[in-house]
Amino acid sequence: MDLMEKVVSLCKRRGFVFPGSEIYGGLQGFYDYGPLGVEMKNNLKRLWWRFMTVEHENVVGIDGAIITHPKVWEASGHIKSFVDPLSECKKCHHRFKSDDILKSNDLKESKCPDCKGELTEPRNYNILVPTELGVIEGEKTKTYLRGEACQTIYLDYKNVLQSSRLKIPFGICQIGKAFRNEVTPGNFLFRQREFEQWDIQWFCHPSEMDKWFEYWKKERMDWYKELFNNPNNLIFFEHKKLAHYAKKAFDIQYQASPFDGSEIEGIHWRGDWDLNRHGEYSGQDLSYKDLETNETFIPQIVETSGGVDRTFLFLLLDAYAEEEERVFLKLNPKIAPVKVAVFPLVANKEDLIKKAKEIYHDLKFSNVTTAWDDRGNIGKRYFSQDEIGTPWCVTVDYQTLEDGTVTVRDRDTTKQERLPVDKLLSYFQNILK
Ligand code: GAP
Fold first, then answer.
1. How many angstroms is it from 290 CA to the middle of ligand 1?
2. Core-most of 95, 155, 240, 347, by most CB within 10 Å?
């Protein structure tokens, strides 16, 4: 098995991620997060939210609707430009992204990757996911699920300004779902049809675009580097072919990706494209008035837009490790789904179980996600926790009953040290804060 297969298999076996609608044979491009996956994803999202709204001044959040007025997608340019050119094989009728298969832009040279048949000229397919509102057939309104989460930030920008005391420069951030009819979903969580994005839209004065673009580029790269074991695997890639809204764009990429695809996040110079277009299509004045200088202008926007699911996937690939007799996930403790596992040395000694349960409950109710395990032998319990990335295992043994200390075993080194029970919580909290 290659690394990707091992990670996909671990995800299913241990309850991180399941194929969507699996009992019906699955639905391509959709996944469900299981009990451990949702803990890890929530940890990631909490870290991102804290980074944006606590560690930065002048950043507030919103949680916008997934379905918006249909005009939003005309104004945003997605109806016209959110297209993938596809070529169809004249023999087997399979469709392929033209960009993926065209060799040196010469269609005649390219053949169907499946049957080597001749390919048609590329045709454009819009990847927005349409939906209908209303209950009466023939009177339904067609609109779209969000093709990119950030659009609701532009829609709410005036409301945020009017309801807060923000002054330019400021940011509005959001974590939310986006939907795309991807032509070639695949590589597990990498290219899905329903996925989650974390975005900030930073509104600034036109004269400060360069400064803020560079600022957010660095901030975001530094944030990712803190989370990965191998930060050197993260690189910038500058786009030459730009999305319809962008004047400048860099990706943060995971260089060690085992498949074709490595983008985690895009840093985009969106300028005044979005506010101008929404102003024009809605008929509303979306300009900003600076009360100190009396200047009125359309703010320029720097966007950082990342994939929660892609980050989740690349972190698992980065963390997966094998040693002679164990598999372990070397996850940063802050994102590990379970922080501590508590074991009684044996499962049939009431005193040990009582003490271990006390410790388990104390940690758990102090917001340190804690697991309990009294099955099998200690070695098996360690390996089971290693495989899901639990950083520490606490064992309550006979010595605990005499001197109030427990063993704390470290996931990465497998070394154990004895700590007093009453110091455990602060020990873990210090590392996790
Ligand atoms: N608002 C700008 C925007 O949506 P994007 O580069 O299309 O830009 C931003 O998407 C991020 O969303 C990507 O860097 C990626 O991490 C994530 N993403 C995009 N399409 C995805 C898909 N089909 N499945 C999973 N994540 C995706």
1. 33
2. 155
